[in-house]
Specification:
- Chains A, B: This is Transcriptional regulator, LacI family.
- Chains A, B: One of its GO terms (molecular function) is transcription cis-regulatory region binding.
- Chains A, B: Keywords: DNA-binding, Transcription, Transcription regulation.
- Two copies of one chain form a homodimer.
- Chain A is 44% helix and 15% strand.
- With 336 residues, chain A is an alpha/beta fold.
- In chain A, the strands form three sheets. In chain A, strands 2-1-3-4-5-11 form a six-stranded parallel β-sheet, sandwiched between helices. Chain A has a four-stranded parallel β-sheet with strand order 7-6-8-9, sandwiched between helices.
- In chain A, helix 8 packs parallel to helix 9 and helix 10 packs across helix 11.
- In chain A, 50% of the residues are buried.
- The model of chain A has no long low-confidence stretch (mean pLDDT 93).
- The first copy, chain A, binds a DNA duplex (16 and 16 nucleotides) through helix 2 and helix 4.
DNA sequence: GTGAAAGCGCTAACAG
DNA sequence: CTGTTAGCGCTTTCAC
């Protein structure tokens, strides 16, 4: 039913190869014939079938993107960055939400292979043995973000989460805080683990005691931040409360602040709270969130740029790109 | 290089059609041969090339999704709904960010056609003549959200934005407010237009004056809410200030509240602010946002369900699905 | 410059 | 039940 290259050829009175040539500018075609072909294309409103094209070219101009949780405000921004660059180079995005489930991710990785995507961007979460197998078994270029593996051959774009968390914690310490709690992310997630490591490192290095009662693990969502804070409030005596809380992301920080406020505690007067990411809400939240700003959009954009290079066989100037972060001082932390 | 169905056939000592049959369970195959084929598939780690498959089947199991702005927290949640249902039925998502630009959207629509997607979900923004042409020219099933057209044949899933905005405004009125301003969305966006209409309707019906100085247009982003509020503050005398502001979405409401707070005005004591959408931040924001809750995830899920039905030739029980909304009373609006 | 024909990897008649 | 074969719509040698 749809019009094919054959129809165009017939209409223009030429061969299909000629049509293909003018469509792709792959070989010189006399201007007279070119015009006839173009006219036919227009008249029939022909649109090439990219499946057929891809099948012979072995190129789909498709990039698979795996995110753990698209509803987490971090990822849409990164995806926007990916999309923008990908589009610029003529690639489109096949999106998969893994819910952080490793089996789902593996399953999707297989689908991506079947769909013959030209490349894959895998955002955060862990890299398991199964992944390693996958890396071995396929030659689809892949770049990962927020999580460099030990494998030298898998390019990645990250920030230095450990150092960022170290700096954030040190910032809190420089403000005079000594009892600093942390609401961490899941420890099987690299960002979760690294940020916890950074916190630990800073505490240790400053000879500050880590009170395990002030340590809670969340899942990067608002609710888990709430729960963590509630638990701290419930289990820790008033006078033992931390003077500062470092949350592994802004969402959890916001959840924690809500609970604090609801319990008549003031932020930052009674307790300082520091976030991580600097999502859109951080500057407008009250108190405006003191946080670690990640170049979220750029993470996506750089990953996409890297992947495109990889796909097109260019050399990467560096396989691991570390992007800068900044501590943004706002109003949720105070000097004591 | 990659292993094809031919390789499997050779390995198993059967014909390609037999391999195809066991892979698709399309025809009975003796269990002995089936086992041999499966063994070969495993041994060679064969993965069918879905391009070739799609080319002959004329079915890609791909759904194109067009969103105006993936960074707007509304859409990721809707996308999650789409993804979940689509996946359940074996479809994957091709994502496009249109930035609200109509030409970009049209361009993407063409790409989707070339990519032979089985269906399209188009979220919000307008439906122009060009779109109409597109609808005419293609037979790809499409469902639109947040924006029903006059075309009876294009299924959609929406909430009644006019009535929701009407109810929201009436709610404010019922609280005793008379000077109610509005920060609307772009009027060429259906949600923007309808919500403004609903506001207008409620005001008129309650014989309340609409002060044009209290009307500002934003673009659904936090910053535009800020700007709108700043402008109102700058141009309107203190004693003429509205007692309530209705923002066309939560982001703008949050932006507005920030400006109010920064200017020493209290929310809701001095000015009430009502939002729309109930994005994740609404309940945790301070003051917790009084808003109109849309079933965001469901909008995506229902749209996807509808589209799948359409693709698979099932009858739709209704072409237009109107989902319920609810006014959520929290702390950003007060009775005066 | 242009056309004929092979083939990308798979499915689905059509025979047997 | 199983194999042979003809395409799906396109690109690309290879001749002319």
């Amino acid at each position: 039913m749809p019009v094919t290259i054959k129809d165009v050829a017939r209409e223009a009175g030429v061969s299909v190869s000629t049509v293909s040539r003018v469509l792709n500018n792959s070989k010189p075609v006399s201007s007279e014939i070119r015009a006839r072909v173009l006219a036919a294309v227009n008249k029939l409103n022909f649109q090439p079938n990219s499946l057929a094209r891809s099948l012979v070219l072995k190129k789909t101009r498709l990039i698979g993107v795996l995110v753990p949780d698209i509803a987490n405000p971090f990822f849409p921004v990164a995806i926007a960055g990916i999309e923008e660059i990908a589009n610029m180079y003529g690639y489109n995005i096949l999106l998969f939400n893994t819910f952080g489930q490793i089996e789902k991710e593996l399953q999707y990785l297989n689908i991506l292979k079947e769909k013959q995507v030209d490349g894959i961007i895998k955002m955060s979460t862990q890299v398991t043995e199964k992944h390693e197998e996958y890396f071995e078994s396929t030659s689809i270029p892949m770049v990962v973000t927020s999580n460099c593996t030990e494998r030298e051959d898998v390019p990645c774009v990250v920030i230095d989460d450990v150092r960022a968390a170290y700096d954030a914690t040190s910032y809190l310490i420089s403000l005079g805080h000594k009892r600093i709690g942390m609401i961490s992310g899941p420890l099987d997630d690299s960002a979760g683990r690294d940020r916890f490591l950074g916190y630990q490192q800073a505490m240790l290095e400053h000879k500050l005691n880590i009170d395990f009662n002030l340590l809670k693990q969340g899942n990067f969502k608002v609710d888990s931040g709430k729960k963590a804070m509630e638990e701290i409030l419930r289990t820790v005596a008033r006078e033992e409360l931390p003077t500062a809380i470092f949350a592994a992301n802004d969402e959890m920080a916001i959840g924690a602040i809500g609970v604090l406020l609801d319990n008549g505690l003031r932020v930052p007067e009674d307790i300082s709270v520091m976030g991580f990411d600097d999502i859109f809400i951080a500057p407008v939240f009250r108190p405006a969130l003191t946080t670690v700003k990640q170049p979220i959009y750029d993470i996506g954009a750089v990953a996409a740029r890297k992947l495109v290079k990889l796909i097109e066989g260019e050399k990467l100037s560096e396989t691991k790109t570390v992007l800068p972060y900044h501590i943004i001082e706002r109003n949720s932390c105070r000097r004591i």
